[in-house]
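Exercise (ungraded).
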Amino acid sequence: MRTVPFDGRETNHLAQQPFGQIPFLSDGDLEMFESGAGLLHLARKAESLMPRDPAGEVQTVQWTIAALNSIEMVTVPWWFLEVTGAENNGLSDWAKNRLGQLEKVLREREWLVADRFTVADLLMADVLRVAKLRSYGDRPASEAYVTRVTDRPAFKKAHADQLAHFAAADRSR
Amino acid sequence: MRTVPFDGRETNHLAQQPFGQIPFLSDGDLEMFESGAGLLHLARKAESLMPRDPAGEVQTVQWTIAALNSIEMVTVPWWFLEVTGAENNGLSDWAKNRLGQLEKVLREREWLVADRFTVADLLMADVLRVAKLRSYGDRPASEAYVTRVTDRPAFKKAHADQLAHFAAADRSR
């Protein structure tokens, strides 16, 4: 893992990432932005992130895209309006509806695909674990799901490593 | 192409698509929802939609996800607030910013990936061709890009076929 300083971002980051977002993944000669693209790239290389049979692969891609385009497409703008102090958040009903539809799915299964952890769970739990979202409404199956994914030792280690990396980068400024 | 009637959607559609959206793709034994997942599935089968070299493939996935998660994630909720009559659309600055970043990219190239049409263009142009979005601000490179993609004979044929299919389905109700 590597971070680039916020100062100088015009040349060190925006030249490669037109939307100024993170993360950015380099793998040998290959370079890519978009979390979803990086995750799908890693998933193609690691069976621990995606089953190797065609149906398992298709469903993993499907739920990865659902996290990005059916859930996050509503929850991130909803969150944005919340934190920027919108008086009436015009996305509330839509967000409630989508999260309710996902709650129904998660009532019936522990993991999104093939009864096992995949990269789709990693992304979906990351989309759902936003504090404001978790405290908005009552969705016990979704809540248990977020706990299930974020309690995995791999998640805890990655999370701790990232915070340590940020702390070290701050100290060295 | 097949459509299912809106009446009876609880059993004929929602059972397979928890968010009630279209499209839904069947390919032999494989079934999937999410436009992005269906497009990436087809792209893996057709070089006309995605180059076969690793860098071309990675960039096609990257720009497909960018259309879904960096552009549409802002423009669709922005559009939703517009059409539901929000007085102050709290997503306007963000939408303007993202579309401006994309305009800069499209000033420099005709197609998003590898100097040729890919599935990423198909999706990005579909995201951008929404009338309300096109008339919001002035982005000549994006406008020329949408025209370039939607003027392709394959787009025109698919569009005409879909409208004819809807018209026939309406007549047979």
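Further reading is listed at the end of the chapter. For now, observe: Residues 54-83 of chain B form the longest helix (30 residues). Residues 163 and 169 of chain B are 10 Å apart (CA to CA).
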